[in-house]
Amino acid sequence: MAEQLECSEYYCAALFARTHRRQPNIDLPTLVEQVIRAYHAERQAVLDCLSAILRGCEPSSTVSASLQNVLQKFAQELIIHVVPLESNRRGRFPQKMLVEIERSVASTVQLKASLTNATSTTNALGGQGV
């Protein structure tokens, strides 16, 4: 699963453990589904936070000047922050964001293809035979 989600095995195991603690009596396929949902929910939460930070940097009547200043400084630090990229490379945070966007697009395309080409395991006759 870690390979499919393109995350570390440790992170994937932590998601499994957390999900299983919350719902200890679910079967394995449901647990896997819930782990995948948790993975995407956490990614969405990070994106929502980044969006809020960047939106807070824009001039607005709803954000105080002092908060806007703090958010601008934080955004500037994010932009210059060096982070790990794929293949043991390092780069700036915006590079990492672009890589993650490309991965998300590729994963979405792959998922849509899987769903479109999935074979059914249901019996069209409902087990009644002909």
How does this structure look, described?
The chain has 130 residues and is mainly alpha-helical. It has two domains: 1-67; 81-116. 68% of the residues lie in helices and 5% in strands. The protein has a two-stranded antiparallel ribbon with strand order 1-2. Helix 2 packs across helix 3 and helix 3 crosses helix 4 (65-80). The mean pLDDT is 84.
Keywords:
mainly alpha; 130 residues; elongated
Give a short synopsis of this structure.
With 130 residues, the chain is mainly α. It contains five helices and two strands, in the order H-H-H-H-E-E-H. The model has no long low-confidence stretch (mean pLDDT 84).
Write the layout of secondary structure elements.
Elements: H1 2-5, H2 9-22, H3 28-57, H4 65-80, E1 82-84, E2 90-92, H5 93-116
Antiparallel strand pairs: 1-2
Helix pairs in contact: 2-3, 3-4
Strand neighbour order, sheet with most strands? 1-2
Biggest beta-sheet profile = 2 strands, antiparallel
**Helix proportion:** 55-70%
Number of helices: 5
SSE ordering: HHHHEEH
Proportion of β residues? under 5%
How many E strands? 2
Report how far the terminal alpha carbons are from each other: 40 Å
Mean pLDDT across residues: 84
Radius of gyration: 21 Å
Shape: elongated
Structural class by secondary-structure content: mainly alpha
